[in-house]
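hey so i finally got around to running the thing on that chain from the lab meeting. sorry it took forever, my laptop kept dying and i had to restart like 3 times. anyway pasting the input first so we r on the same page abt which one it is
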Amino acid sequence: MMPDSSSQPRRIGFLFNHDELHQVAHIAPIISALQRQAPSARVEVITSSDRQAEAVREFLDPACPTPAFRSIRPHAGTRLVEKMLGNMIPLNRLSSLKRSTDLFRQFDALVVPETTTTFLKKNGDTDRPKLIFFPHGAGDRSIGFSPEISLFDYVLLPGAKTRDRMLAAGVIRPDNHHIVGYPKFEAYADRPRVKLFDNDKPTVLYNPHFDPLLSSWFRFGEQILAYFASQNDYNLIFAPHVMLFQRRLLASVEHRLLRFRQRIDPRYATLDHIHIDTGSTRSVDMTYTNAADIYLGDVSSQIYEFIRTPRPAIFLNSHDAEWQGNPNYEHWTFGPVLDDLAGLGAALAEVSPLPAAYWQVQTRAFAYSFANDDPDPPSRRAASAIAEFLDLP
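ok and heres what got predicted. didnt touch it at all, straight out
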């Protein structure tokens, strides 16, 4: 427990420092819940852009006091250098964090959805602020269980799967984590399904990742768009991970690989049965995972949001992975895996309706990945866990 050594209110910051908005819904719902749980604490929001601040405000309960918002905007010179380097290195994020170290030290704790802030533990006082982590997703990629997680003081988790893998990797301890569920589901629970096409054909969501090694876009993307453009049986939503089209040159620190991303032929955007979205808020608010009938992808954690309702899924092995029995590809057991596109048409027919065997696998995997059996919403469970860890009155 963190001792209360001061009569001043405890100060807890929720830090949002990513270029895009896909991490916001993972921790923003906890803000108002923590205000209700620990009304004597000072809960504040730290962002690096107006877009982030606006997105966070959408999740705040108007019945609670509006938390203070603080900005750590990147320096103009850093933005220019990052742009000159093709945006392949997140200099803005790193610069904003490093220039804000003195601000962070004023907080008793920071709640964050990504691992960049662990530099505070590597380069200074390891006691203040306490770092509390909630991963932005419940996927299977190895990066989700990286050594940096061991630098966090406390870790909030969506379910047993992430806990078990983090314990096995030695990045959490039995006494420094708590399973709370998935606040993002709570955030978008009441969103109605959006109808994107003026027909009743089944809709396929193609959702490639941005990692230059693991993403199917670099090898299969153009062929997939061409395939759906030339047929009339399916609609297609092309909604990749929001970071895929934010940079022309993509870098993977994990796999030490650089790759240029090809452009989209503009003719596809003119077709009535193809919907293209390379990075709007709909790409991160579950609009497309709710609207689609069939999932087509590779390693994105969005597959776990898609199988909230078990549905057909097809996976693309574009990097010759030996995936069977590999926990980093556990989601590839949810449907057929293709090594090339010759069998795409047959696979689409094979998975609809969803075979019982795949339904069972998806149902078990979802229950293992998300703790949904608690009557309290995830935001309240997370707030209670934070309050207990920090010994908040």
